[in-house]
Each structure stands twice: as structure tokens, then as C-alpha cells.
Amino acid sequence: MAIWLVLFIFASLAIALVAWLFLSTLDTGEGSDACCHALLEGQDTLPTFKEVTTKCTAMQSHPSEGGVLILTHTTASIESYARYSTSLLGAYSKLFGHTLIVEHERPAPLKGREYRYGKVWYLLNWMRHLVAMPQPRPAYIFWLDADAVFVNFETDTLSHVIQEHLQDPETQMAVTREAHGGVTGKTQKPTIVNSGALLLRVGDWAIDFLQAWWNHPEALQGSPDQVTFDALYKADLRGVRRRTVILPIEAMNSGIGTFESPQQQPVIHLFGTPNPVRVQEWNEVLRDTVLDGYLTSLDARAKELRGSPQGFRAMFKFADGLRKNAQLCAPQKAVCVERWGGSAAALEIFKYLDAEIVKQPHQLPERIQILDKIAEEYEHIAEGDNALAIWAEGEALIRAGVSNGPQERLQLAAMLNRQAVALQARSKYEEALGKAKEAMDIWESVMGAENYDMKRFLANIGKILEAAGRSDEAQSYYLRAQNIE
User: Which contacts (CB < 8 Å, 24+ apart) does range 176-180 have?
Assistant: First the structure.
């Protein structure tokens, strides 16, 4: 997660302001602009899908003056990560004075068009709406796919692009080049642009171009939206060549696996990425970008709800936030929020939670999570023997548990793997190898052999063997890991 540590450095100047914007909505949870604030406790307190789709659309039926109208689309099928991405878009919009539209209705019947043409339909409808509005009105519309987010809260990326590339009134549109000459859709045709981020000047030219894009003959035959965009561009329809600036992918979009610092690449677009990964990454952005506000809110919530299940969860999250802060406080990073305690404070809270959860029956999975955090903190403060003892305790509890279901088996695999890493660091290679192989076997019995996590298990065994001087054996495990798609 080094990228998020870099993100935090560049976002630090904006933390206080963004945190204030978010915290101002924590108490009410109501109001017409609830969707435009990323609340700070992760999934438990982010706006619900219904709130995002109804309140945000209702709020923006009359877009605000100036700024950019930011447009995206969500559906129930992507709720798991769209709650995060729309919250981050709302934060960005609020911070820099833009207007956010979260569309959720189905577009007009696609009639043979690929599903991605929904963006063309929404852009066309809103472009017509804005052109018909009296001045003052937003001068630009920016489309961003729901699996993309802004991560630079220090600089207004959209205003920067407008000032740098759209000052000539002839220029009507800014797009980003597709990364590495990418291909799209079933046709696998190389495309010029990535349509996940589009910035258009509000006006009649944009209406004409969007109408032509929507009605392109190849679109009606299922050709991908980027392919038909390219066809329009190559044909210079409506003079699109001289009216469009094609920017590098990192200007307001991104390729997969090419993430730079937020100032160099202010948008991260996780296209083609599994939904759980998107949820994890966007939650990281929410937490790291507003870490101080995150800790403040969790601390207050834990105290307010002390003794209740909600308070217990808030305290767990608070301790985990302190742990994250401690990692950021490391001498080589030194980008933490200094007023908060670090590992020692987190360790005490996790120990308290462990003592409390022991009193409750049937809470083994939750207790294993807490023990795991305690062990990680001991490892972080260089008390490795204590860490191994706690992991061994957790392992024994799982093995002795009445239930031996998939959740418990996956927890056991994760705990064995962490022990293996710690043992390798202490040059206890044979013991580490035994733990790592058992962890891999357990994981495979539950999840199968062809998945990303199996690559990690195989690579971990390879590292242990290599450290033990058994390079030939190590290479066989590395090769197996490489062969998993």
C-alpha cells in the first residue's frame, strides 16, 4: 500500500479543510447534500445506496453556478464500491465548489448498444438541460466512471485542466489517451482514448457530437463506445479533431498498475478490477485522506457508545486507526498526525477489547481478529516473541473450536501465514516453511488453486526457501505463482 502513504503526504495540506467538511455532516446524517460528504467510519456510516441515488439526484436538479457539473452513474449491482467512490466525488465537489450528479435511473433503451453507452445518454441529456438553462450555469460537464475517484485533494484538477487546455474557445473537449494502446470490448480493437473521464464545454457543439456518438451505426451493432469515438475522431466529424485535446492518461484518468503520486496522477481508475479490491482501495483513500478527522470521529463514537456492540466496533476501528497512524509515524515516513498516540495506545485498546470479548460466548472469529491485531502491534514494536506467542494462541483457539467452517479455516490459514513471515525474519526457516505450506493447503481447500491469494502463498513459500538457500525449490514455487492468471 505504498501508494496510499504517498497519497497521504500530498493530501496533508488539505486534511483539515476536508475533515471539517466531512465532520460537519456526522451528527445529522440528513439534509439534501448528504450524498456529497464522505463520512468517516467506512462502510457502517457511508451513505446508503438509496441515499446516494435519491438525495444526490434530487439535490442537483438545479446545478449551482460556476464550477463543473460532475456526472457519474451507479446501480445496485455496484453498490459495494459505489458508496465509496460517490462519497469521494462528493468530497472533491464540495471542496472545490463543483456540482455532483449521481445518476441511477436506467438510460434510454440501448437497442443493441453496449452498456457503456449509458454515459453518452446521460451526457447528452444533461448537456441539453444545461444549454436550456439561463446563465449563470456550469460551463463544463465532466464524466467519471463509478470505478474512478479523485485522490488529490490539494489541487482542483478539473480547473487546472480547463485553465491549461480549454482556454481557446474553439476547444470543446478534453479526453485522455488510452493507456498502452489498450484494447476494448469483444472486438479487441486498439483505441485512442479512454472514455472513463471526459470533460466537455457546455454548448451546441457538444450536443451535436454526443448525438452523433449515440447514433453511430456501429454503436447500434454493439461496437464499444471507445471504438465508435475513435471512428468519429478519425472521420473528423463536426471538426472534432481541432476541437478536442487528447491528454496523457495520468492527467485526469489512470491505467491499471501505473499509479503515481496524487499530484502526478490525481485520478485512480480501477477498471477491470474485482469489486472487493475497489472497496478496499477506496476505503484506504477515505481513511488516509482524512485520517485526523477519522480518528476524531471514532474516538468520540467509541466513548459515546461505550459498552454497546456499536461502541465495541468503533473502539476496534479507532485502535486500528491508531495502528495506521503509528505506521505513518515511522522515522522514514514521518507523515502521521502527531497528536494521536501510536502503537502503544493501539496495543492497550486491543488488549482491553480482548479481555472484554473473552466474557462473551460464541465470539471466536471476532476474538481471532483482535488477537491478530495484538500480535501485529507486538511485531511492529519489535517484540517478536510476544507476537509469535499471541499468534500461537489464536491458532490453538481455532483448532480447538467447535466450528470448523470456511471462515475459521481461512482465519487459520492467514494466521499461519503471518507466523511463517515472522519465523522467516528470525531465520527459523524449517518452522516457517511448515506453517506456510499448511496455510497454503488450507486456503486451497476452501478457495481453490486458481486465485490471486494462492499466488501470494506460493510466492511466500518461495521467499522462505530462497532465504534458506534452497533456490531451485524456490524457483518452482515462483513459477507456479506466475502461471496463475
Answer: 176/246, 176/247, 176/248, 176/249, 176/250, 176/251, 176/252, 176/253, 177/246, 177/247, 177/248, 177/249, 178/226, 178/249, 179/249, 179/254, 179/255, 179/256, 179/258, 180/255
At 81 the pLDDT is 76
Burial (Cβ within 10 Å: 0-12, 13-18, ≥19) of residue 457: buried
C-alpha 123/C-alpha 119 separation (Å) is: 6
pLDDT of 466 reads: 93
Cα atoms found within 13 Å of the Cα of residue 236, Cβ hemisphere only: 3
**For residues 229, 234, 240 and 243, what is the CA-based torsion angle, rounded to 10 degrees?**
110
Three cell numbers at 78?
455496484
Per-residue pLDDT of 87-143, as tens digits, reads 778 778 877 888 888 887 777 777 878 888 889 999 999 999 889 888 888 899 999
| 402 to 66, 342, 372, 413: CA distances (angstroms) | 62, 36, 20, 17
The pLDDT score that the predictor gives to residue 298 is 74
pLDDT at 284: 66
Q: What stretches in the chain show pLDDT beneath 50?
A: 1-62, 181-188, 334
State CA 142 to chain mean position distance: 20
Give CA–CA dist 193/394, Å, rounded. Answer: 51
Look at residue 109 in the predicted model and tell me its pLDDT: 76
- The pLDDT of residue 8: 38
As a whole number of Å, the CA-based R_g of the chain is 25
Q: pLDDT digit string (tens) for 195-211? A: 889 999 999 999 999 99
Determine the longest span between alpha carbons in the chain, in angstroms. 75
CA 351 to chain centre: 30
